[in-house]
Amino acid sequence: MKVVLDTNVLVSGLLAPFGPCGEIVRMLTSAEITLCADARVLLGYT
What we know:
The chain is built from 3 helices and 2 strands. The chain is mainly alpha-helical.
């Protein structure tokens, strides 16, 4: 599955690894989902 993550989801997942956002981050790190991004999205992460 391909997804685009909002910056808030990524930060929340890192801060609360056992919540819903944490589950999304876990799925991302285990390659169950693929992060899709373009330059505009990547700028939001910086």
